[in-house]
Amino acid sequence: MKLTTAQALVAWLIAQHSETLDGREVPMFPAVFAIFGHGNVLGLGTALEERRDVMPVWRGHTEQGMALAAVGLAKATHRRQVGVATSSIGPGALNMVTAAGVAHANRLPLLLLPGDTFTSRAPDPVLQQVEHFGDPTVTVNDAFRAVSRYFDRITRPEQLLATLPQVARVLTDPADTGPVTLALPQDVQAETYDFPDVLFEPVVHRVPRPRADRHSLAEGAAALRRAHRPLMVLGGGVRYSGAGTRALEFAERHGIPVTETTAGRTLVAHGNPLYAGPLGVTGAASANSMAAGADAVLAIGTRLQDFTTASWTVFDPDVRLIHINAARFDAVKHGAIDLVGDADVTLEDLAAHMTGWRADPGWTARAATVRSEWDTHIDKLRAATPGLPSYAQLVGVVNDLNAPTDYVMTASGGLPGELIGGWRATGGEPTMDVEYGFSCMGYELAGAWGAAMTHSRGLVTTMLGDGSYLMLNSELFSAAFAGHPMVAVVCDNDGYAVIGRLQQNQGGEPYNNFYADCRTNHPRPPRVDFAAHAHSMGCVVFTAVDLVQFRIAYTRARAAAVAERRPAVVIVRTQSSTWTESGAWWEVGVPEHLSGRTAYEEAKPQQVRHTRPA
């Protein structure tokens, strides 16, 4: 079949399908996000136009935004579908590097197709080409190497035959998934080749479920059976494996209290008596107290990030770590007994070794007791008060009005702590995306656009601060133009409040975070009219200044988004000094002359590096 490189790539994308967690067959690549330039409009752009009936292409308005939308799509589909983003070379390509970092940090599949310079070099230097004096083979796209799981530059059409199977492998491999970058030189996109028909035959990709080594299983089971106070930590790997039900059955059979990480949030129904709450800095004091008392931790599908482990101070120094993870890289961290395999089938195999064993009943019962104390704390934070509402109060309203199938998102600033620490889930299918692996400001709106495309069983609500809104808001118009409904709650607290809190709580002077502390030549600097701006972007807009108004505005926004098939934005002024605190420590560099240095030096010795006994 004689095709251009670009035509062959598009035909291959269309032929790929995947199997969802509930067994449905869906397109593996359901959407392409594109901004065309001279480096991709005639090659890849023409190929996409020719297949527009089967390959949806959505117009983005920033390359970073549309690539982040592709990331949000992957998370909402539990890594069973992959978004594609294409740009010309130069600034358009480099704008997608941040999104690649988000996908890499969060272990989410993403396919990036940036244009590249001419392989012939005949017209060099072309527009947007950065020339490297000592290496003419280097282009700006080499910047993707540091944030790609798989990188290739296609310099001959027939190279697709070797690289496309690797692309599919990485995008569907639970241990190795992440961003894939195929740099496409402008001239090569248009070159033709006689491709074999077999390349375009339909394929259904089913995510593999490798089982753990039987010796490791026996060792892990023995360590767990010796424990009196075990704790389970459920991470994103449980979500992507579809192992939530299996994990809870295992916990209930053996009386093991359960906690969640950021990526594993909403796997467990809030009312489950074994649920101790979310773990870590942005988690709950209840979960952290259980972690401090545990003598064994069964971690499942987690990277054990610093916010989860409180910079490795949340666990007892002598705790035994048993880690189920598809990626050996993560499974061996801190000397854990590594059970390398799929979460669902590995838990099934581990259960066969645990017959008749249960944790201490008093320890099991403690989970509900400490979480009840945390619930009382959250109830107080959510209670209505006069004046501007707090983040916790707004989260409480959104939580109350969301249906079990709705989807909630955030990424950076103070809102991750409020959603992770305070949200009360109904359990079942995971319904939260807190991008706190890369903590990318701007993901909140762009990622919500991608999620809204694929989360058809409920409404997507994204919560963000004024800083994130100003950082990247163009995909609001993309979603409005495309006709994808969602709700965005924009919390305006006059600056980067959570970093201002960190700065001042450690003894630093307030500087360059709140607008009141930023340099300006105006005696009365301007304020952003967020409502007018969101309206100009094609959104339905509502405003609120207190909690009562917010409940009404959010209710109306939900109805308007669905009825008008476009984003509805709620603008609400918020407090800048009230936060949900778990009490856990987080290591940041504190200069010796600041008052926070004393607390730093007191906490630092509690930080341990767990090692595996000989």
Radius of gyration: 25 Å
CATH superfamily of the largest domain: Thiamin diphosphate (ThDP)-binding fold, Pyr/PP domains
Sheet-strand content, in percent, reads 15-25%
What order do the strands of the largest sheet run in, or round the barrel if closed? 5-4-6-7-9-8
Domain Thiamine pyrophosphate enzyme TPP-binding: 433-572
Family: Belongs to the TPP enzyme family.
Domain Thiamine pyrophosphate enzyme N-terminal TPP-binding: 40-128
Catalytic activity: 2 pyruvate + H(+) = (2S)-2-acetolactate + CO2
Walkthrough of the structure:
Keywords: Amino-acid biosynthesis, Branched-chain amino acid biosynthesis, FAD, Flavoprotein, Hydrolase, Thiamine pyrophosphate. Belongs to the TPP enzyme family. This protein has 614 residues and is an alpha/beta fold. Helices cover 37% and strands 17% of the residues. It contains 24 helices and 23 strands. Strand 18 (407-410), helix 17 and strand 19 form a beta-alpha-beta unit. Helix 11 (285-293) runs antiparallel to helix 15 and helix 16 (391-401) packs across helix 23. The radius of gyration is 25 Å and the shape is globular. The model has no long low-confidence stretch (mean pLDDT 96).
Quick tags:
614 residues, alpha/beta, Rossmann fold, 6-stranded parallel β-sheet, 23 strands, hydrolase activity, acting on acid carbon-carbon bonds, in ketonic substances, Thiamin_PyroP_enz_TPP-bd_dom, FAD
